[in-house]
Structures are given as structure tokens and as C-alpha cells.
């Protein structure tokens, strides 16, 4: 497949995803406003676009399925049918199925044919059409040819040139064929049409390729061509490929013994000849068991070659490795391309800024070529302008990666709807702050954690309707998703008005798991984070939604991997609020550059509370070693950075150095450094790309002088300090 | 067309000067008196030695990291890696930047020597010294005009090393 074509396909998948989102959103809204024709028209348009585009790329399974959906939607739109909950449900399920179908073409995976067939049948019957011959799993092995089921035919027809002269109309033929069943694809070949100057209007230069899904047999189809048969080239073939359509698979399902496992018996995908084994089994010459046995004796080409000493096992191994790599490579290529859609206004603004930058640059170089010292103020002014431009461009470029968080929220209305039906609760979802923008990578990675939180709220947080009424609450529970900016970070809250976390239950569970002692006195702030421990769930019963204790720890881990934090607020009987605090972007952080000896480190500004110069007598030790510093009445553990990272410091006396008070996961520590150099934005560079993760270091960056500086991982630093001997320094 | 013509021309030229392009070309470098070789296809570039930033708590043969046009590249000192005595860096000290399974790394060596063309028949399997001397990172011993070239197995040398550190770190943690 050519690159260009692949590129268009990429665009198709993107568009299809957008249309699917519109369809789903529309259907959900339709449940509330079943009479909204505007909405129906919108859904219909999107479905129609998917159908059209998929047909263009030859994704017939998608086209056919969408066509069925469209038929039903059309009836709804014309008011011939009313939107009822079963219909809405069916359409939603069909949307899921369509998603799976598109995903299957995209990644080359398989689709559950049974689901597709069932939905196709349901759609057809909902549309009031005659239910198509639904494939039944017959127990008798029936030869597909003799079955009165619908079959798919590929018809290639090149009519004779005299067609028009005799007053025959090819359209009539096509119409007649359509009357037999479903003409799923019609391709017109115009390659023989000459230039306009040479065209003979009485001659027919066209030929067609048709795909017909019908219950009629081949003879009947041939009879349509009776009048035009003379001099025309006509071929009618029955096709049986997966691609050709969903229902052609029916032929396979009717052979019960073939479907189970032997992969060698799978039908060929592109309509090519069937494997010998399949034919033998179908014609009843051998039983599937015999064939299986025979196949198991068959040797791989490689083994035979080794036996014949044509290759050494090592060479073979190498060749196999190459094969595997190629397979893996082709697979990753399929799934790995991502792209982003950017508002044109953003790009226009960026282009303007680049224009300004170019002007500033030319002003500077003009000044540089004939510079005199008295022009220094002018130079400084222009450099300041350059700085302004650069900063603005940086912001705008980062802005390109910014997407409204609404894209991450959009999946929740559906999720909550499904959860509420499943759990038998009435749940209302309120979204706000959808327009808040944040980095694309962040948006992609918070989807799963948010889903966990919403599920948890719906399943554990909110009570069943009866219980709510007993507690003088409205019958309908509310889950609120909100996003807003706060300082340099973004906050997302998941709030429910349910029963709240139970302090007693959590304590009981924690004692049972040995996380806390029996009589330990803990504050609320110490208790709530316990639910983030792996395997911790207080749900009385495990549902298929949640309660297995996996999830909350994953939420915490994912959010922390993004450099964010999770906090909990809960009031018993009133509800629970989870607050996720995330950095706006992952690529740039605001940092404080500090010096230890000759080395420069960057400390993330977010984790710095304050910096102090210790006074004499404020530092105490316990057991002779553990150092504590008194900061306004609280003793904080002190870490000497040069000890942890084995550096040569300028000062070993804390009175001469600077202490940074850092906070991580609610813990506060004092870290001793030689000097604070300043505050700046740094671009995070990965250490893992060419090396590996280094304990205590979150990443690297390039400093003003071109050398590499490390960004401190406060948590990691703490861990190393606690272990005593630094990791692998012994090696 | 032009590209194909260029390719044949290059081939001919290479043959004339005694270079072939069948992959058995090695960039050789010195560590003391000894000569080592790396597969030339692995070499990205050679650059003069510049100061590196030391990575805390890593084995001593990992000199540190360097900013190579915006990417962070770890630098490994081969002398330390091979347990050879360290020497002061001179004007000849260079960093050979290699690519090993998509990872870019730098090797500090005493000096680069030459690009040698070693025939397959002139390469013998690595010697066995038992536990006394670790030569597991050698691919073989190449001969070229009375010179002995120890051919390095880059995957072994750099990635094994990295894995080991990784597991060590995990164990300690």
C-alpha cells in the first residue's frame, strides 16, 4: 500500500473516531430529548459520513454495518418510528460494535462475528425490514452451496459496445439486481472511456464490478443479463471472504466442526482459494480429527531444512528472529502514529510571532554590524525584546499541544449511564470546566485514573435510591467532574454526594492487613491515603465494576507518574471529593537551580516550601546520627545532599550552607545545599532514552552553558537517604 | 537512477582503495598499547573530549552524561570498564559515539587509529582465559598486517552492563 494511501486512511480513522463520538454523544442526548429532530439529523449525518468514507476505502464490513444503522436512523428521522429506550440502547450497542469494526480494520485485529451478526439482525428487525436469513448454527453439516441462505456474489460485467445502439439501459440491469437483495458495492470502471474528441456517444465504454448479497441462486442472477449476454464479458462468482461482508460468513458458521480451534482451517481472508484441508473436510472425505492429526505431523520448513543440513540451527534461529522483529515492527507501525488537530487561530498567531522574531533578529544583526558602545541601551532593549518574543513563542508552541479537557470528559456520560443501569442507581453526571486546556499527553494519561474514580463513586460512593431517601437525600445521586486552573497546575475534582468514606471500616481493614497497629491514633489525613494501598478495598461485595482493591493504587501511581498528586476530602454521609493536581505540561518545569560543590542541580519549584539559613543551635541529632532541624517549632529531618549523591561540597557546616524545605507526598524534609543560583524554566530531557532511570533524579536538562544538569526527584532522594548506603555506589 | 549510479561508483572506488562495504569494516582505537575495533556501522560520530556531568551513585566507569545537540548521552570510560589503569586525558582523547539498539552512548578512548577492513577468515573466536580475565565482551580477534585487533561486542559490552546495574539497583531497593 502506498504511503499516500496510508496517510488518507489515517485521516479516515481520525475522522471516524470524531464522528463516532458525535453519534454516541447524540444518542445519549437523544434519550433525554427523544423528539429532537435536529439531534437525529446530526447523528444521521455523522453515520452517513462514516459509511461514505469507509466505502471509499473498501472497508465493506464497516460500510454494511453503518448502512444498517443508517436505515434505522433514517426511519427515526422521518418520524416513521419513535425513539424508544430499546432502540436507543440498540443504537448505542451498534455504535460500540462499529467502533470495534473500525478498530479491527485499523489494527488488523479480529471482530466477534457473532455480535456483529446479532446486531445486524436486530437493526434490521428494528427497521421493520424482513429479518434477513439469520445464520443459524445448524447441527447438520450443510454444504454452503445448497443452503437457502443469503450469499455474496462478485459480478464483473463488461457490456457489449452496441448496448446503447439497441436501446438497452445498463441501469435497468442494476436496478433488477438490487431488487434481488442488497447491492452492497458498485464500482464503475471508466478506464476505457476515450478522450472527449474521440468519444462515440452511441458506444458503451463502461464496465462494472458489483457485490450482491442475495438469497437467489446464480441462475436467477444470470437470467438478468439475458438480453445483454451476447458479446458481453460476464463473470459471477460467489465470494466468501471476511472482508466482503459480514453475512457471507454465515456459510462458515453452518459447518459446525470447522470453527473450533485449528488455525490451519481458517478461511482465507482475501477471498483466495481455501486450504486443501478445509475442502477435504467440507466434502466429507476426511473428518476434522483426522485432518488435525495429519496437520500435527506436518513439520515446519525450518525443521526440515535443519534435518537436511541445509541450514544450521543457529542460522535458522537468526532468520526466525528477523521474522519476529519484522512482525513486531510492522505491528508497532500500525498503532504508533498519533497526530493532533490544532485550531488554525493558534497557528496564525504563531506565524505572526515568528514574523516578529525575524524582525527582532534582523534589528539585532543590523546593530551588531556597526556597534558602538554608546548604543548599549539600544542593544539591551532589543535583547529584552528578543527574550519577550522567545518566551511568547515558547508558550504558544506549548499551547499547540494543549487540548481542552472536554475530550477526556466526553466518555463519562456514557460510562455513568451504563453504570447506573447496572447498579440500579439513579445517577446524574455534572461536568464543568471542560474548556480548561492541558497537555495532550496528560489528557491521554488521565483518562484511566478518572474512569476508576468515577466508577468508584458510582459503585461505592453513591447509595442505592432507597437508602438515599431514608437519609433525606434526593433519590438521584450526583457525580460532579470539574476542571480548573490553580497556579501553575490544573486541578480536576471528582465529587459525589454519597455516603463518604467510612473511617471505621478503613481502620478495621488496615489493622487486618497489618498496615497500622491496633491502638494507633491516626488523624483523618493519615487514614484516607490508606485506600491508595495496593489490594485495599472495603467494599463488602466485589462487583464486576469495582471492589477488588485494584484501581486506587493504580490511580495514585498513574497520577504521580505525571508529576501530580491525589488528595481526598470526605464527610461521612455527605460525600467524597477526590482532587487530582497535575502539571500543565510535562515538557517544561519551573525549577530552582542550586549548587553543591561544582555540580548544579535543579529542584522542582512545586516541591519547595521555603529556604532558610539555619541558626546555631537549631540542629539536633538523635541516636548520634539522625539530624533534625527546628523550623519554627517543628523538627524536620535533615538530608545532606552531598552525602546522598557522594559529591564534594563547599561547606560541610550547615550554618554556612542553605537548607531547602521540600515537601513530597505530605512529608517535609530539609535538604542541605551550598548555594541557590536562581530560578528558571527548564526543559526536561529523558535519561531513560539513552541510559536508564537513576535513583533520585527525575530527569536531565541542558543548562545555560550547554552542560547537563540533573533535575532532583525529591521522593527518590528521600528513599536513598533512608536506605543509608546509596544504591550501587559500592560497585 | 542517480542514486544507483552513485552507489556503483562508490563501490568501485572502495574496491580500488581496498575498502569493501560488506560490513566487516572496523573503526579501531587505542587503549594504551592495545588495539580495539568496533563495527563501523555502529559508530555515529567521533568527537573531542569535553567535560561531562557526573551521574550520582553510578559505577565509576560511567563517566557521566553529555549534551549532544540536545540529547542526553551517557559516556563510558573504557579503561575503567576494562579495569585498566586510568591516565590523564590528552589532545588525542576522544569520545566515540555509538548506537546500540537505538540507544546512543559515548566511549572515552585514548585515541582513534584507523578504519580497517578485516576479512571473515582473518577473525578468530575470542580467546579463553577462564575466570582470570573477563573477555566475554569480545566478538573475536582480528588480524590485520601483524596487528591484533580485539573486536568488541557492543550489545554485550554496553547493554549487559546496563542491565546489571539495573538489577543491582532493584536488589538494593
Question: Which tags fit this structure?
Answer:
A: 731 residues; alpha+beta; Four Helix Bundle (Hemerythrin (Met), subunit A); Alpha-Beta Plaits; 6 domains; five-stranded mixed beta sheet; 20% strand; disordered C terminus; B: 173 residues; OB fold (Dihydrolipoamide Acetyltransferase, E2P); six-stranded mixed beta sheet; 40% strand
How many strands of chain A? 22
Largest interface: A-B, 32 and 28 residues
CATH architectural label of the largest domain in chain A: 2-Layer Sandwich
> How many extended strands of chain B?
11
What is the second-level CATH architecture of chain B? Beta Barrel
Quick synopsis:
The complex is a heterodimer of chains A (731) and B (173). Chain A has 23 helices and 22 strands. With 731 residues, chain A is of the alpha+beta class.
Task: Give an overview in words.
The complex is a heterodimer of chains A (731) and B (173). With 731 residues, chain A is of the alpha+beta class. Chain A folds into six domains: 3-126, HPT domain (Four Helix Bundle (Hemerythrin (Met), subunit A)), CATH 1.20.120; 151-295, Alpha-Beta Plaits (2-Layer Sandwich), CATH 3.30.70.260; 301-336; 344-400; 404-583, Heat Shock Protein 90; 588-723, Beta Barrel (OB fold (Dihydrolipoamide Acetyltransferase, E2P)), CATH 2.40.50.180. Helix content of chain A is 42%, strand content 20%. Chain A has 23 helices and 22 strands. In chain A, the strands form five sheets. In chain A, strands 14-18-19-17-16-15 form a six-stranded mixed beta sheet. In chain A, strands 6-8-9-11-10 form a five-stranded mixed beta sheet. Chain A has a five-stranded mixed beta sheet with strand order 20-12-13-22-21. Chain A is extended. Chain B is of the alpha+beta class and 173 residues long. Chain B has a single domain (23-167), classed as Beta Barrel (OB fold (Dihydrolipoamide Acetyltransferase, E2P)), CATH 2.40.50. The longest helix of chain B is centred in the C-terminal third of the chain and has 19 residues, at 154-172. The A-B interface holds A 599, 644-647, 685-687, 689-692, 694-697, 700, 702, 706-710, 719-720, 723, 725-729, 731 and B 51-59, 64-67, 70-74, 103-105, 162, 165-166, 168-169, 172-173.
Amino acid at each position: 500500500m502506498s504511503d499516500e494511501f496510508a496517510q488518507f486512511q489515517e485521516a479516515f480513522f481520525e475522522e471516524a473516531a470524531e464522528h463516532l463520538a458525535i453519534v454516541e454523544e447524540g444518542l445519549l442526548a437523544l434519550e433525554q430529548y427523544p423528539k429532537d429532530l435536529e439531534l437525529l439529523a446530526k447523528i444521521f449525518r455523522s453515520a452517513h459520513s462514516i459509511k461514505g468514507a469507509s466505502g471509499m476505502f473498501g472497508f465493506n464490513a464497516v460500510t454494511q454495518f453503518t448502512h444498517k444503522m443508517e436505515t434505522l436512523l433514517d426511519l427515526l428521522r422521518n418520524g416513521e418510528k419513535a425513539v424508544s429506550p430499546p432502540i436507543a440502547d440498540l443504537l448505542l450497542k451498534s455504535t460500540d460494535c462499529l467502533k470495534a469494526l473500525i478498530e479491527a480494520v485499523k489494527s488488523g485485529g479480529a471482530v466477534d462475528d457473532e455480535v456483529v451478526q446479532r446486531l445486524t439482525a436486530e437493526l434490521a428487525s428494528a427497521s421493520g425490514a424482513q429479518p434477513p436469513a439469520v445464520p443459524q448454527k445448524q447441527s447438520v453439516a450443510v454444504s454452503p452451496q445448497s443452503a437457502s441462505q443469503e450469499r455474496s456474489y462478485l459480478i464483473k460485467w463488461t457490456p457489449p459496445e452496441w448496448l446503447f445502439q439497441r436501446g438497452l439501459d445498463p441501469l435497468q440491469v442494476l436496478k433488477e439486481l438490487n431488487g434481488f437483495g442488497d447491492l452492497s458495492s458498485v464500482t464503475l470502471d471508466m478506464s476505457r472511456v476515450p478522450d472527449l474528441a474521440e468519444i462515440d456517444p452511441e458506444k458503451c465504454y463502461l464496465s462494472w464490478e458489483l457485490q450482491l448479497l442475495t438469497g437467489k441462486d446464480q441462475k436467477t442472477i444470470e437470467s438478468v443479463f439475458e438480453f445483454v449476454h451476447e458479446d458481453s464479458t460476464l463473470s459471477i462468482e460467489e465470494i466468501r471472504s471476511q472482508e466482503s461482508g459480514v453475512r457471507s460468513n454465515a456459510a462458515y458458521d453452518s459447518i459446525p466442526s470447522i470453527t473450533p480451534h485449528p488455525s490451519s482451517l481458517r478461511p482465507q481472508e482475501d477471498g483466495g482459494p481455501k486450504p486443501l484441508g478445509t475442502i477435504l473436510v467440507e466434502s466429507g472425505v476426511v473428518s476434522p480429527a483426522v485432518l488435525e492429526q495429519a496437520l500435527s505431523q506436518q513439520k515446519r520448513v525450518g525443521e526440515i531444512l535443519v534435518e537436511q543440513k541445509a541450514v544450521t540451527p543457529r542460522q535458522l534461529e537468526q532468520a526466525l528472529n528477523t521474522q519476529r522483529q519484522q512482525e513486531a515492527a510492522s505491528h508497532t507501525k500500525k498503532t504508533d502514529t498519533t497526530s493532533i488537530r490544532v485550531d488554525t487561530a493558534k497557528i496564525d498567531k504563531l506565524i505572526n510571532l515568528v514574523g516578529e522574531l525575524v524582525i527582532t533578529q534582523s534589528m539585532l544583526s543590523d546593530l551588531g554590524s556597526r556597534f558602538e558602545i554608546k548604543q548599549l541601551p539600544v542593544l539591551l532593549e532589543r535583547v529584552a525584546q528578543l527574550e519577550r518574543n522567545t518566551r511568547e513563542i515558547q508558550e504558544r508552541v506549548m499551547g499547540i499541544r494543549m487540548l481542552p479537557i472536554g475530550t477526556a470528559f466526553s466518555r463519562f456520560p456514557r460510562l455513568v449511564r451504563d453504570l447506573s443501569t447496572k447498579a440500579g442507581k439513579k445517577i446524574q453526571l455534572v461536568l464543568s470546566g471542560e474548556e480548561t486546556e492541558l497537555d495532550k499527553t496528560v489528557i491521554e494519561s488521565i483518562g484511566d485514573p478518572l474512569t476508576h474514580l468515577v466508577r468508584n463513586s458510582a459503585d461505592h460512593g453513591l447509595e442505592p435510591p432507597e437508602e438515599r431517601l431514608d437519609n433525606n437525600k434526593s433519590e438521584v445521586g450526583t457525580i460532579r467532574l470539574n476542571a480548573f486552573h490553580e497556579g501553575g497546575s490544573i486541578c480536576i475534582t471528582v465529587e459525589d454526594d454519597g455516603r463518604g468514606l467510612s473511617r471505621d471500616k478503613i481502620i478495621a481493614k488496615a489493622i487486618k492487613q497489618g498496615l497500622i497497629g491496633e491502638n494507633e491514633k491516626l488523624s483523618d489525613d493519615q487514614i484516607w491515603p490508606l485506600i491508595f494501598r495496593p489490594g485495599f478495598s472495603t467494599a463488602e461485595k466485589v462487583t464486576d465494576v469495582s471492589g477488588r482493591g485494584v484501581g486506587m493504587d493504580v490511580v495514585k501511581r498513574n497520577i504521580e507518574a505525571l508529576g501530580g498528586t491525589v488528595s481526598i476530602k470526605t464527610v461521612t454521609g455527605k460525600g467524597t471529593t477526590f482532587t487530582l493536581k497535575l502539571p500543565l505540561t510535562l515538557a517544561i518545569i519551573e525549577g530552582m537551580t542550586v549548587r553543591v560543590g561544582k555540580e548544579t542541580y535543579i529542584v522542582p519549584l512545586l516541591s519547595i516550601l521555603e529556604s532558610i539559613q539555619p541558626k546555631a543551635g537549631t540542629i539536633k541529632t538523635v541516636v548520634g546520627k539522625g539530624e533534625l532541624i527546628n523550623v519554627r517549632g517543628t523538627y524536620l529531618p535533615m538530608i545532606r545532599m552531598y552525602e546522598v549523591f557522594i559529591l564534594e561540597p563547599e561547606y560541610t557546616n550547615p550554618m554556612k550552607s542553605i537548607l531547602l524545605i521540600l515537601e513530597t507526598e505530605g512529608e517535609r524534609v530539609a535538604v542541605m545545599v551550598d548555594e541557590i543560583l536562581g530560578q528558571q524554566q527548564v526543559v526536561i530531557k529523558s535519561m531513560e532514552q539513552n541510559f536508564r532511570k537513576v535513583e533520585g533524579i527525575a530527569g536531565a536538562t541542558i543548562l545555560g552553558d550547554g552542560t547537563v544538569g540533573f533535575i532532583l526527584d525529591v521522593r527518590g532522594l528521600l528513599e536513598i537517604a533512608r536506605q543509608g548506603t546509596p544504591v550501587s555506589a559500592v560497585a | 537512477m542517480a542514486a544507483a549510479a552513485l552507489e556503483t561508483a562508490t563501490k568501485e572506488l572502495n574496491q580500488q582503495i581496498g575498502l569493501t562495504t560488506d560490513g566487516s569494516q572496523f573503526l579501531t582505537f587505542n587503549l594504551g598499547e592495545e588495539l580495539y575495533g568496533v563495527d563501523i556501522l555502529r559508530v555515529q560520530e567521533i568527537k573531542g573530549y569535553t567535560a561531562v556531568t557526573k551521574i550520582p551513585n553510578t559505577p565509576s566507569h560511567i563517566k557521566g552524561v553529555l549534551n549532544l545537540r540536545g540529547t542526553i548521552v551517557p559516556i563510558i570510560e573504557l579503561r575503567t570498564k576494562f579495569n585498566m589503569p586510568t591516565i590523564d586525558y590528552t589532545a588525542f582523547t576522544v569520545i566515540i559515539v555509538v548506537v546500540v539498539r537505538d540507544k546512543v552512548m559515548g566511549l572515552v578512548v585514548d585515541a582513534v587509529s584507523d578504519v580497517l577492513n578485516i576479512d571473515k577468515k582473518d577473525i578468530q573466536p575470542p580467546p579463553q582465559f577462564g575466570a582470570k580475565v573477563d573477555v566475554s565482551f569480545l566478538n573475536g580477534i582480528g588480524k590485520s598486517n601483524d596487528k591484533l585487533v580485539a573486536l568488541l561486542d557492543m550489545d554485550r559490552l554496553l547493554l549487559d552492563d546496563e542491565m546489571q546495574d539495573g538489577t543491582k539497583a532493584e536488589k538494593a531497593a
